[in-house]
């Protein structure tokens, strides 16, 4: 399989090089040169596979023979052996017509572990096999950072620096990142938002000389491996429902910020998974919901909400969707992204909006609606939703009449967001892995949110 850039100036890149490249060298995002197709017969054959077996099949479609099958199997097995549930991403019924897929059974209690346990092991594998230097830089609104650090802490030949917005992540997220004392980990708390961090990371990657000189690698969903690993659980959810005798198309409701997770669902659908609606659930940072209703993509004022990991204005993977919306035409994408850089807005014509609305439904969940949803499901179903999952569930309920059977993605464990859960008057027990964090000392540096300050610190860390 080869990978190409959404901007058209990078092509013919193999899987391992695509992982190492992160952001495409022309400033675009890498996508597969062709989307592999999965037939109804193949889906039937996959029905009894375990999560690990299914992941192996799907990864093989995207990796080909670049990683020998038995070595890939070992990578997959190692990556999911750290999960606390035998099903890795189990699906549980909330009420008739609505299931949740629990994606939080990995080491850091958020869906990011599903891809980042794999990517961490993949980086080690690539470092061993090719001798490449792995210097990871990433931005986080809280979950990616903790999960990426966990995936590579203490690993030979790898260093990682994570930027998080100072004071804008939950206490547990902060502790998960900053209590790690391995020498290969650097935490920078920046004076700004997640969007500032993501912009800095992307601009550092776009400086190709700097990127190559310091061997910068990505762990954000810029990296195509993240997206590919996240498609697996859409298939697995469908297959779990099919095993229960529910073989019709399923809708998915996805709490959305950087558009990576829902893009993985879109890719799964394009591969042939019978998906009915993809429901895009935002919090009050509602740029993407507005895009689905109006066809105008225009970031505005940052809003602090009860679901801080989704407090994102500029959604990185939106560019990947534009690529498919415009018929894989890289010059249209380049033009639109240039317009966005100049004016801060993208407006699509009516006929494109009709396509968007056939791909997605959307609902922006207000703060109070998020809390009400947590309270309602706790009281009526005895199930505690984290505030991000609550956005997905609220959107699924709101759009139930047009969606049919729906799986809402449960993207984090509620213990990570106790500040929000307490506002509903609920006290929850913490898993021991989380309560133990409060005893430990923290390792973090404050930094201005400027390219120069971050670049200078990286040079010191990586040299
Ligand atoms: C808990 C949680 N839910 C949902 C999201 C949104 O996912 P995405 O950024 O892939 O849209 C994030 C972070 O991005 C998250 O950490
Ligand atoms: N919510 C994310 C934001 C970064 O998204 P990514 O999927 O591109 O890594 C986080 O928790 O950091």
TrEMBL record:
GO terms for biological process: threonine biosynthetic process. InterPro entries: Ser/Thr_deHydtase_PyrdxlP-BS, Thr_synth_N, Thr_synth_N_sf, Thr_synthase-like, Threonine_Synthase, TrpB-like_PALP, TrpB-like_PALP_sf. Keywords: Amino-acid biosynthesis, Lyase, Pyridoxal phosphate, Threonine biosynthesis. Residues 102-332 form the Tryptophan synthase beta chain-like PALP domain. Its cofactor is pyridoxal 5'-phosphate. The modification N6-(pyridoxal phosphate)lysine is found at residue 112. GO terms for molecular function: pyridoxal phosphate binding; threonine synthase activity. Its EC number is 4.2.3.1. SUPFAM superfamilies: Tryptophan synthase beta subunit-like PLP-dependent enzymes. The keyword Transmembrane does not apply. NCBIfam families: thrC. Catalyzes the gamma-elimination of phosphate from L-phosphohomoserine and the beta-addition of water to produce L-threonine. PANTHER family: THREONINE SYNTHASE FAMILY MEMBER, THREONINE SYNTHASE-LIKE 2. Belongs to the threonine synthase family. This is Threonine synthase. It comes from Paenibacillus herberti.
